Amino acid sequence: MTDRAVAVVRAGALTTVQDLGRTGHAHLGVPRSGALDPAAVRLVNRLVGNAEEAAVLETTVDGCALRPRCAVTVAVGGAPCPVRVDGRPAAWGSAFRVAAGAVVEIGAAVRGLRSYVAFGGGIDVEPVLGSRSTDLLSGLGPEPTAEGTVLPLGADTAVPGWVDAPPWPGPPDELVLRVRLGPRDDWFTAQALRAFATRAYRVSPASNRIGLRLDGPALERAVPGELASEGMVLGAVQVPPDGLPVLFLADHPTTGGYPVVGVVREADLGAAAQAVPGTAVRFVPVR
Amino acid sequence: MSTVGPRVLRVGERALLVELGGGAETEAFHAELLRRRAAGALPAVREIVPAARSVLLDGVADPDRLAAELPGWEVGPLHARAGGTVEVPVRYDGPDLAEVAALWGVSVDEAVRIHTGTDFRVAFCGFAPGFGYLTGLDERYGVPRRATPRTAVPAGSVALAGPYTGVYPRSSPGGWQLIGTTDAVLWDVAREPAALLAPGTRVRFTAVDVTAVATARVATEGVR
Fold first, then answer.
1. Are residues B162 and B191 both part of a single domain?
2. Which residue pairs from A164-169 have beta carbons closer than 8 angstroms and sit at least 24 positions apart in sequence?
3. Which of A93, A141, A199, B93 is the most interior residue, by most CB within 10 Å?
């Protein structure tokens, strides 16, 4: 076989196609979606000579195994993990060439949660509303991969001899999230806002691509009753009736009816998406 | 014409939430935003997301500046003719139609006449891609959600909740009162826009149900 495609041999817990997201359609109820750690996507794409927004694979916890049907350049980044090609160790964090039919094994994340696998030419599934991302909330884009899924690849790219890549800081032991309070911080008691800004939360195992769920002090409302549904942004910290904050990630709903106490800086969301359950989280209010 | 300033709230680094007094003001303000964007008089904004009583502007390059300008805007009245018009043919055969008619205190036929006689407008989308919240029904025709939501509402179901009418673009769980079914394609990613019922669109529902056909036949036969 000489067709430009890659077959999924082992899909792992959750391996999806992701790019930098589906923007401009929120008014139709379409979530942004896209990779949870976009800096990692940009880097692995640059390593294989792709445009930064090319579609890649996002793994979750236990990696995946892939068999390209053509010779292709591959780079793995994001959460560090062992990489093997036909059983032999290959590099994490730099580009390598894979022969047609070889099996690329992306191992379980050693630190962090989500590794990214870029192929020269990018994953070339049909875009939906301008993006190839799998959106788990609304079902847009390709299905999550399964054993036997075959993904088309774009035309091979020339590998740049030199890529300026800052060293990956790695997932933090304590996640520090800079947050701008509002728009609904006035719906909470002063005591709740103090707890939010000073106490430690922990990443809950119920977290997913829609939101990072947090265990810790429940935030008490000063304003009872219901909020009329309003537009939601990436990084919004929404507080449902149980008082436990949920940090909205890429597949978040476009509107919501629970008050948003604050919004986390976009630059901090990649680290949030790599934080394993149990990681300590602190919110630091900034202007 | 209104010059009463809306309340503008900052949302993170790049977004503004514009709070308005009510649904009508929100629809008028949303229409004003679209007019200004079409005229090139709005700074670049990635998303304009209307909701029940607010409009979110996301991906704003200079939110402080826009936040300072917005309250001074003259917002024109909502033109009845603004936006395209979509006709949605409906079989009024929903399992909750009789209950809705009872809540309204009218017969089923009268309930259908009320629904087909109303000019609707898509106020906003949410819940699922292409799920529009349509306003237009008189206040007294508001209905509660069902006490127990259904685990699967079929695609094309025409439904009521609160002041809104909506059409399920695909099968999903739902607690709205189902009054009918349409074959209209609500969501098609190959279409521009993908949503048949995009915000600002005017909508009329027309009855094509078998009951109506049967009633018409009975009427011509002179049997009442």
1. yes
2. A165/A43, A165/A46, A165/A47, A165/A93, A168/A40, A168/A43, A168/A77, A168/A80, A168/A93, A169/A271
3. A141
Q: Which domain holds residue B41?
A: 7-72
How do residues B28-68 score in pLDDT, each as one tens digit?
A: 999 999 999 999 999 999 999 999 999 999 999 999 999 99
Question: Is A169 within a domain?
Answer: no
Q: Please, which pLDDT band fits residue B224 given cuts at 50, 70 and 90?
A: very low
pLDDT tens per residue, range A194-251: 999 999 999 999 999 999 999 999 999 999 888 999 999 999 999 999 999 999 999 9
Quote the number of domains for chain B: 2
Which chain B residues are Cβ-neighbours of A29 within 8 angstroms? Answer: 125-131, 195
Q: Do B47 and A265 touch (CB under 8 A)?
A: no
CB-based contact, A77 to chain B, within 8 Å: no
A13: which DSSP letter? S
Do B153 and B212 share a domain, yes or no?
Answer: yes
CATH code for position B19: 3.30.1360.40
B193 vs A contacts (CB less than 8 Å): 28
Which one of B19, B48, B72 terminates a domain? B72
CB contact set of B98 (below 8 Å; sequence gap of 6+)? B108
Q: What token pair was written down for B141?
A: 């025709």
CA-based nearest residue to A31, from B18, B175, B47, B145: B47
A167 is a domain residue: no
CB of B204 within 8 Å of any CB in chain A?
no
**Closest approach of chain B CAs to the CA of A32, in angstroms?**
10
Answer yes or no: are the C-beta atoms of A240 and A263 closer than 8 Å. no
On chain B, the residues whose CB falls within 8 A of the CB of A233 are 11-12, 14-15, 56, 58
Out of A26, A138, A183, the one facing B128 most closely (by C-beta) is: A138
Q: What is the ipTM of this complex?
A: 0.94
- The answer to whether A286 faces chain B, any CB pair under 8 Å, is no
Q: What is the mean pLDDT of chain A?
A: 95
H helix runs in B39-163, sequence order = 63-69, 97-104, 108-116
The answer to whether B12 contacts A128, with C-beta atoms less than 8 Å apart, is no
Q: Please indicate, yes or no, whether residues B145 and B172 belong to a single structural domain of this protein.
A: yes
Contact at CB, A233 and B15, closer than 8 angstroms: yes
Q: Are residues A142 and A232 in the same domain?
A: no
What pLDDT digit, counting tens, does each position of B166-221 carry? 999 999 999 999 999 999 999 999 998 999 999 999 999 999 966 554 444 343 33
Q: Answer yes or no: do A197 and A58 share one domain.
A: no
Residues B40 and B17 in one domain: yes
Give the nearest partner residue to B11 out of A29, A233, A254, using CB atoms. Answer: A233
CB atoms within 10 A of CB B61: 11
